Amino acid sequence: MMNCCGLITVQKEPVPLQSIEVELEVKDHVATVVSTLKYQNKEDKPVEAVFVFPLPGDAAVCHFSAVIGQKEIVAEVKEKQEAREEYDDSLSSGQQAFLLEESEQSPDIFSMKVGGLAPGESASIRLEYVTELAVQADDGLRFCLPAVLNPRYQPQGASVQVFSVPASLVPYTLCFCGRLFSPRPICKVESSCSLEPLQYLNTDQTQATVKLAAGHKFDRDVELVIYYKDAHQPTAVVEAGQTSAETGTLMGDPVVMVSLYPEFPQSVMSSVASCGEFVFLMDRSGSMGSSMNSKERHQTCIMSDRDTLLLLLKSLPMGCYFNIYSFGYNYEHIFPQSVEYNQKTMEEALKKVEEMEANLGGTEILKPLKHIYSQRCIPNQPQQLFVFIDGGVVNTKKVLCLVKKNSSCHSCFSFGIGEGASSALINGLAKEGGGHAQFITGTDRMQPKVIQSLRFALQPAVEDISVTWGLPKGVSVTVLSPPITSIFQGQRSLIYGQLTGQGSTDATDGCVTVRCSLPGQPLEMKLVFSVRPAVDTGLTVHRLAACTLIRSLEMEDREQQHGGMKEKVVQLSVQSGVSSSFTAFIAVNKADGKVIQGPLVRRNIQLSETEQVPVGGGGGGRGLIMVGQQPDSATAPKQPPRDPLLQLVSLQKASGCWILDPDLAAALGKTSEEVEKSKPAMVTSEVWATILALIWLHGFKMDAKEEWELLAMKAASWLRAQNAPCVPECVDAGNALLGCSLQKDALML
């Protein structure tokens, strides 16, 4: 019998939220989002509506207002406790009040209270935020409007409440439209939702509009991936300060935002590291038993995890170390500590991987992270941590603080699986751990994205990163961003700086230079820009810079434990009008003098969710299982036939070679006799088997090259080390057997 924890309610109480309208404006890689939420109290009593909802974890919330009748009430940013007291006092005196605040545990959860709606009265709430769009490994810019706030694992003492119901019972509607502006042509926009055709607004295709197709139900995230031509162009935007703000303050001075895209020499990118400690931390909470997407219901998240681990383990270089942890309410590991990668340890790990099920209960990630960080470092083996998770936790800030504390000894690569994965957690893990974040949603395959991140992890180490500025005489810069600790090929690095001083009128150009060291050679990236502020750019850059600085100060406050940064954060938040964990937006309708009669009835606005309910876990922990699904593996979906690619990959040895046996012949679609008969006499069976496998990969699976390229490089390296004779003849014989026409060079031989 399942024990519900009370996060879900299906009572058909009157809900005052009627509709949500969202306007998106994207300028290059920065998005401004305006959401309008319309309420009406249809009850015969005054109500207080409470709405807990998700936002992107790095969003800078910069405006909150309410329209009652014909009057607009604009909220102010105040210290959080002061704002709460003002809200309570206003309701007690019969006034209407509105409160918006960020969760103290996780920066991507917000709660909004609409207090004092009289019977029959309507209110329109306007919320605005700005955010940087994350760059995917394929150079797309990802925007996500979260629709789902998955029930989150709550350690004892957590106080966040989430009210969620099946999507079919959500009574409000969504209207969404976007405008895109770029200095470069917009190539395409992809989405997990159905879109109307992209409408270009000019002939050079640098402006466009995008809309959701009719009939969209707000039962999943609205995700857009925007692709620009020549996406790797560095840019710098200088934004003028606010005229009403004091000179010398962040909002009063110009602010520069620099975007750099490092390009490494081909000689560096063609080599991969042969060392490292690779630690894989896999989510095995009950919700991982759900389908990856609606089109492939037989493929669950945990099954995709197992396939991904197969590719990862086959792609690791000989000489490295590795271990696999899995977590739910408790955690498990395959080895007591990381072990050297070889055939024996790889086989042992894969055997355990095949037994993995989504049966460990809740999502307590803090415990395994503490254990991983407590392990001794292996000399000359830099640690690379890969974290897979399909939801979120309410103690996000504690988790990120722990990762940052240990960032000097590892890099962290994170993967958000499915709808509702916490952007604050996924992006924060990568940011604080000096790695890269990926999201797997809709019909995305997990494997290519994970292998792309493994490529980053195997990239030669970048060291001695420094940033220097060259500015006109009389102009100085205060860098607002945290120091750059990692650089990856083609991935954006952002720097915010506050410019002070006037400078001379004839010197208008400045420059920023990032230098670092790659194995055997230095690398320098230099960008020249005008220090004159651009015209009519608003305060978007200032708000993003303020948000960046606020997050850094909040992290410093948590690291110090005794605090000390709160006063600075509150001052900056109030000055910039950007939310923080220490402040809140408060608006009170004092204009009409009306007093709301009668006691307020509290109404919790229901969020859509994908029919997941919390269940009791061992020792008071909480897990997630699908409605109607038993928490044991006996009811797991029947395994479909293994993909031919994965079948071939599963036969590869840790060294990179394949063995000539009936299993390989079957994977190639041939009989053992056919394969044996075609083997040239001068080569060994292992060389022949490995060449056949490479020909099959290049001949039949080029559409999945991103998934197998690393393990193919390992195979080619093994072949070269054998110094085998007659390789061209083997390639010709393999082509004839498999019906391909590949050249030796195509196989990297």
Topology readout:
Layout lengths: L16 E11 L2 E11 L6 E8 L5 E9 L2 E4 L1 E4 H13 L3 E7 L6 E9 L4 E11 L1 E2 L5 E5 L18 E3 L6 E9 L4 E6 L7 E2 L6 E5 L10 E7 L6 E5 L15 E6 L5 H4 L7 E7 L17 H15 L5 E7 L3 E3 L5 E2 L2 H12 L11 H9 L8 E7 L6 H10 L4 E8 L5 H10 L4 E4 L5 H13 L4 E8 L5 E4 L13 E8 L8 E10 L2 E10 L9 H21 L5 H11 L6 E7 L11 E4 L2 E3 L2 E5 L5 E5 L17 H7 L11 H6 L4 H7 L6 H16 L4 H18 L4 H12 L11
Parallel strand pairs: 1-13, 3-33, 12-34, 20-21, 20-24, 24-25, 25-26
Antiparallel strand pairs: 1-2, 2-9, 3-8, 4-5, 4-9, 6-32, 7-8, 7-32, 10-11, 11-17, 13-16, 14-17, 15-16, 18-19, 19-29, 21-22, 21-23, 27-30, 28-29, 30-31, 35-36
Helix pairs in contact: 3-4, 3-8, 6-7, 8-15, 9-10, 14-15, 14-16
Concise account of the structure shown:
The protein is an alpha+beta fold. The protein is built from 16 helices and 36 strands. The model is unreliable at 1-12, 149-167 and 606-638 (pLDDT under 50).
- Summed up, the helix count is 16
Distance between the termini: 59 Å
Helical fraction equals 10-25%
Strand order of the largest sheet: 5-4-9-2-1-13-16-15
Shape descriptor: globular
> How much is the radius of gyration in Å?
28 Å
Mean pLDDT: 83
Q: Give the biggest beta sheet.
A: 8 strands, mixed
Q: Supply the helix-strand structural class.
A: alpha+beta
Number of strands: 36
Coiled coil: 339-366
Domain VIT: 1-131
Pfam families: VIT, VWA_3
Keywords: Coiled coil
